[in-house]
Design goal:
The protein has 181 residues and is an alpha/beta fold. It has five helices and eight strands, in the order ββββααβαβαββα. Strands 5-4-6-7-8 form a five-stranded parallel beta sheet, sandwiched between helices. Strands 1-3-2 form a three-stranded antiparallel beta sheet, with no helix packed on it. α4 links the parallel β6 and β7. α2 runs parallel beside α5 and α3 packs parallel to α4. The longest helix is centred in the C-terminal third of the chain and has 15 residues. The structure holds ligand CA2. Ligand CA2 binds next to loops.
Length: 181
Amino acid sequence: MVLSQCCAHPRFALWVGPISPVNYRNGRFVHTSILILNGPNLNMLGTRQPEVYGRETLSDIEHACRAHASWRGLEMDFRQSNSEGELVTWIQQAKGHYAGIIINAAAYTHTSVAILDALLAVELPTVEVHLSNIHQRDAFRHHSYVAKAARGMICGFGSHGYILAIDALSRLLGDPGVASA
Ligand code: CA2
């Protein structure tokens, strides 16, 4: 989002927390935005398997993420799709709009070379998150294609993993070696 074009020098940028929520780029001040993507069946959270995934709904998680991202000075978009192609399209479109991605690709984590290729193509700082500890579960859940494109993975902490992922991405974006969107 464009905030202002009136100031012509980066030293006028606003700084709150560990990263700058407002960056100066191409003669404009822009918010730092992140994209949180959720894969198939996560829209059913809170309805079944609470012993594995907790009792919170995806909407509960979105609200908690929005509050935490705001506290971190980040704008956030939060999306869910049951379609692999839609997730790939959203990742492709993220380049130039978002500074980084948090992704719980759900079952596509373990199957999708297409999502991996999209993440590798956009070269955005990416944090992988899972509600459950995938390494304590079925063997087919132990491998993640997403992991090859992610700076790191958080799993096993339930919905709090999303908050930890926001903190991790926020820190990555504070690294001057990482370009923002
Ligand atoms: O632990 C995670 O976050 C997972 O990404 C969740 C995926 C699973 O396939 C991954 O191995 C690990 C499944 C999400 C499905 O969530 C449901 C929630 C309620 C009812 C049914 C499914």
